[in-house]
Write a structure and sequence with these properties.
Strand order of the largest sheet: 1-2-3-5-4
EC number: 2.7.13.3
Strand content: 5-15%
Catalytic activity: ATP + protein L-histidine = ADP + protein N-phospho-L-histidine
Keywords: ATP-binding, Coiled coil, Kinase, Membrane, Nucleotide-binding, Phosphoprotein, Transferase, Transmembrane, Transmembrane helix, Two-component regulatory system
Radius of gyration: 46 Å
Oligomer: single chain
Enzyme class: transferase
Distance between the termini: 54 Å
GO molecular function, one term: protein dimerization activity
Shape: rod-shaped
Largest sheet: 5 strands, mixed
């Protein structure tokens, strides 16, 4: 199992400059072996130097113990090994020191210089010892080539392998550190992507809730408002004009059935299981359990999923239903006039539905706030856009709107603006100089 850089850093619990306790134990063991070796080699060094044997052994033990600091000061270890090479001691320290030096983060020129010094020192010492051995007769003369061959072979053998091995281990160690850092970076990036995907999914859920609330408001508010108006009229004429009361009751029933039909269509869209469904954004599965690209795509498409399903099924109102919408308001007692300019044509479903909802909500507001006011609905088909305007005058009787007791949540104008702006259009609303109210919207024909 590989560990990330953070886990690797947390594992550095060794004493002093050691990363781990096992590294400290290893260096202590090597230093002990080196001290014993140098102390043993102090016997011939003491005889050759003319010093007491205990002094030579102590000198060798102290020199060999320098290997304990090989990770902290690798240059000092190599220099000490070079310095005691003429005394023919410190071979283990030289090998381990060169390996540690080559595996360290020091510049290559320093490693090459110290390795060259060590090789030259070993070459000179070996050459002198071999030549002295041939002169004394300790070594049988094999020719003039023997001393240089032994010197070069020994110096290369004592220098090149530890240096090459150290360079390899150092390069591998740096590669592993780079991979750990990259793994940490990827892990942080994946975490950020997961958080971003979760945020996008939450945004998609909120968008879908807003859209559903807007649809519910448009469907229910208009139909129920008309039903309340007709119910109030029914209550007023129930005893005076029974025929008109029956007619108003029939209209109330028609309005209720239409409202239920539209609600069923909307709920049917929400219950769809083919393709992308809005309910998918409410899944309780963790974000990390699926590919991040799929999560991002699902989150981006979730807000429009039910809307696309509605368009494909052909459900929802269109511009052809405006006359019926205006007729329903007229039947409720509103004086409303519809005028259409330009040549009618077929638009995208979202464009026609938005235009219809804008007119519907504007008429609903007239019922709520200006009952009995004369209203004019204008629809203009232009080249690259479709425009609509609903304008009403002041109510003929102040306080007539409040008699119907129609509640208002204040979300109608906000919902209309969100619909129009969402399609790249322009929405303007506000009171007129005559005391009425005007709602205007322009929607690009392409949606």
């Amino acid at each position: 199992m590989t560990t990330t850089g953070e886990d690797h850093t947390a594992a550095l619990t060794g004493p002093w400059w050691w990363a781990r306790w096992r590294s400290a134990v290893l260096d202590g063991s090597l230093a002990l072996v080196s001290s014993v070796e140098c102390a043993t080699e102090g016997f011939p060094f003491a005889d050759a130097a003319g010093v007491p044997v205990p002094v030579g052994m102590l000198f060798g033990a102290v020199a060999g113990s320098v290997l304990l600091f090989r990770r902290r000061w690798p240059i000092a270890v190599v220099l000490v090994s070079i310095a005691i090479t003429p005394a023919q001691m410190g071979f283990l320290m030289g090998l381990v020191g060169l390996y540690t030096l080559a595996a360290s983060e020091l510049p290559r020129r320093i490693i090459g210089a110290l390795a060259g010094m060590s090789m030259v020192g070993m070459l000179i010492v070996t050459y002198v010892r071999a030549h002295q051995g041939m002169v004394r007769g300790d070594v049988a003369p094999l020719g003039d080539w023997f001393v240089p061959f032994v010197s070069i072979t020994t110096s290369l053998g004592m220098t090149a392998p530890p240096v090459l091995l150290g360079l390899y281990v150092g390069a591998r160690r740096r590669l592993m550190e780079s991979l750990r850092e990259r793994a940490d970076s990827l892990e942080r990036e994946l975490q950020l992507l997961a958080e971003r995907a979760e945020e996008r999914a939450e945004w998609a859920r909120n968008e879908e809730r807003t859209r559903i609330a807007r649809e519910m408001h448009d469907v229910v508010a208009h139909r129920v408002s008309l039903m309340v108006v007709h119910a109030a009229a029914l209550q007023a004429v129930a005893r005076k004009d029974p025929e008109k009361a029956v007619k108003n009751a029939s209209l109330v029933g028609d309005m209720g059935r239409q409202a239920l039909t539209e609600l069923r269509e909307m709920l049917g869209v929400l219950r769809r299981t083919d393709g992308a469904v809005p309910g998918s954004v409410y899944s309780s599965a963790p974000v990390q359990a699926v590919p991040l690209a799929a999560v991002g795509a699902a989150a981006a498409a979730a807000a429009a999923a039910s809307r696309e399903a509605e368009e494909e099924s052909g459900e929802g109102p269109c511009l052809d239903d405006l006359e019926e919408l205006v007729g329903q308001s007229a039947a409720a007692g509103m004086v409303v006039d519809l005028s259409v300019e330009g040549k009618a044509r077929v638009y995208a479903a979202t464009v026609e539905q938005t235009a219809y909802r804008v007119v519907q909500e504007a008429l609903t507001n007239v019922h709520k706030h200006a009952a009995g006011a004369k209203t004019r609905v204008r629809l203009a088909h232009r080249g690259a856009e479709i425009a609509m305007q609903v304008e009403n005058g002041p109510p003929p009787e102040p306080g007539a709107a409040s008699d119907a007791r129609l509640p208002s949540g204040g979300n109608g104008l906000v919902g209309m603006k969100e619909r129009v702006v969402g399609l790249g259009g322009v929405f303007v609303s506000g009171p007129t100089d005559a005391g009425g109210f005007r709602v205007s919207a322009v929607i690009p024909a392409g949606g």
